[in-house]
Amino acid sequence: MFNKRVKIKELLATEPSGQEVIVMGWVRSFRNNQFISVNDGSTNNNIQIVAELGLLDEETIKRITTSASVKITGTLIPSQGKGQKVEVKASVVEILGDSDPEKYPLQLKNRPSLEFLREIAHLRFRTNTFGAVFRIRHSLAYAIHKFYHEKGFVYMHTPIITASDAEGAGEMFRVTTLSPDNPPKNDDGSVNYKEDFFGRSTNLTVSGQLEGELAAMAFSEIYTFGPTFRAENSNTARHLAEFWMIEPEMAFYDLEDNMNLAEEFIKYLIRFAMDNNREDLEFLAQRLAEEEKQLPQDKRSEMGLIEKLEFVLNNNFERITYTEAIDILLNSPAYKKKKFQYEVKWGVDMQSEHERYLVEKHFKKPVIVTNYPKDIKSFYMRENEDGKTVAAMDILAPGIGEIVGGSQREERLDKLLKRMEEMHIPAEEMWWFLDTRRFGTVPHSGFGLGFERMVLFVTGMTNIRDVIAFPRTPKSAEF
Ligand code: ATP
Ligand code: MN
Predict the structure, then answer these.
(1) Distance 464 CA to ligand 2 centre (A)
(2) 33-37, 168-172, 344-348, 377-381: lowest mean pLDDT where?
(3) For residue range 231-274, what is the model confidence (pLDDT) as tens digits?
(4) Is the CB of 452 inside a 6 Å radius of any atom of ligand 1?
(5) Which domains does the chain have, with CATH numbers?
(6) Region label for 178, one of left (φ > 0), alpha (ψ between -120 and 50) or beta (otherwise)
(7) Model pTM?
(8) Does 450 sit in the ligand 1 pocket, CB within 6 Å?
(9) Which of 171, 184, 287, 416 is 20 to 30 Å apart from 390, CA to CA?
């Protein structure tokens, strides 16, 4: 039976009294034919196994290599060495699985680069960095459910395959069972999707929002947490083709209620990680600090990771309108010195360089920008009195840019229909969505938080490919 084993995290916190224990894990290092460091992924800290001279035969010694898997039976004793409280004095060392040191690609002696580790993503979980990142990712996923559950929100699973192409959130991936080489054709030469699996053309979802709205019209408050897909052709450090999103949708919420919820939610997640993943955060903070030593002084962060998270927890997010944001940019030294590559004027979609200026240089904290021009936002956002802007809100975070996109939704049928017509969105296909505005419509709001961007923010990692296990990006879908 395997389940008598004790996890290393638990062992390291146990009072040693010579009790018998069983440890299983992967070898991280082996010194002097005597000291084996073993890790089982429950923590970044290894347990030291001491094999007294003579315990191990020649054959076994040869097989204790980096990343070999082992089962150790022994007794838990106070540690003789520095750096840990306990160690295991081995009585039996069994090799469960060999790892050929000539072939094992992950030698930890010289710190491997993140780029290199992406190429061996199947093994990178065995590094301290990815151990910490993925335990934190897990923790945040758990905290998301805890937060909404405790508020009485209902978790909805919205469909992954959708037929609606109206979200307009990004380029979509097509889902089809038709032959790519020889699809059935209509008389005019176009593909006949009536013969496709669903009898129509379908895509992978870019957002669960529209379906989320349907559920919010019955449960009042719902959230989704699932994968979304966007054929983003931009190869940035913040975009994935497959990413996870949390989308709460709430009846009886206006834009301000929406912002309040989003801010509370983000802070809750940070607090949760600070309370539950302290060790891993400290490891990543140190890692980041070392990484930044390579950078010129002016490129380094002003705060360490933990400091930054504390700061976000202890301060209100700045709230400004889009119009105010444009004014700030137009009056900025960066603008005057022509440092921005993209145009700044009322009506443009702010580029990442503008968002980063606002959060990193001007306010130095998260900023919520509201009331964007309606022409750069989706059809479902609620029109403001001025007829020019909509009740949208984006949250911008230091080092990340946009982390949340949300809005109060247009609940007035006539306004919504007019907007759809202007934007050439076929109302007939959206009959089910429009029905919510016909049968008991209410003011309501919602937002989407990109999960990986949140994990980036909390872990201090800088590339989104390093916070999802197996990233999907242009020209890359290995593993
Ligand atoms: P961006 O301008 O950064 O492309 P967006 O305006 O397309 O974002 P929304 O459609 O509002 O984003 O999606 C909601 C949230 O989902 C964003 O705030 C962001 O956190 C996240 N997100 C959007 N696109 C991606 C992507 N390709 N990869 C990872 N996260 C994403
Ligand atoms: Mn986008």
Answers:
(1) 14
(2) 168-172
(3) 988 889 999 999 999 999 999 999 999 999 999 999 999 999 99
(4) yes
(5) 8-107 (2.40.50.140), 126-171+206-466 (3.30.930.10)
(6) beta
(7) 0.96
(8) yes
(9) 171
